[in-house]
Prior knowledge:
By secondary structure, this protein is mainly α.
Amino acid sequence: xxxxxxxxxxxxxxxxxxxxxxxxxxxxxxxxxxxxxxxxxxxxxxxxxxxxxxxxxxxxxxxxxxxxxxxxxxxxxxxxxxxxxxxxxxxxxxxxxxxxxxxxxxxxxxxxxxxxxxxxxxxxxxxxxxxxxxxxxxxxxxxxxxxxxxxxxxxxxxxxxxxxxxxxxxxxxxxxxxxxxxxxxxxxxxxxxxxxxxxxx
Length: 201
């Protein structure tokens, strides 16, 4: 009986720690997109997760370890959204649907929950190897997802077109967010949509 109770209390503590860890990573994944890597502090993340600053090291060996996990989570969330957009339309419409959603006004304004590449690309060269590695793996995943939408998927040509497409999507979103001129912001998105639609055809 005592052994069962001990096992049960261990399971409860483990579940509580996992739930706390999940809250921290979720808060950090939003924070890095909102404030950038350099603007994301441990104290703020722990407060947002409803935990004390002192509890941080029970979950992560370092701030960089938290940022790497946050980068991975943000990338996974973004790629999951892209995959769901693709799955919701016929195959011949998948790439155009993805482009429309990616370059939409909602995504442009939803930086905290949107694509982390467009939110953080300019900061990446200055990050630790573990943060860059986590982000790079998710970027490769995104490129592969786009490549799969081309009829010649599996060929070098599809991979090359996917590289150009992802670079154009990300770069356009960065430029559209950077300017304080709404008409110019809209024009960036429209021009890229038009150009990529022609390239696809």
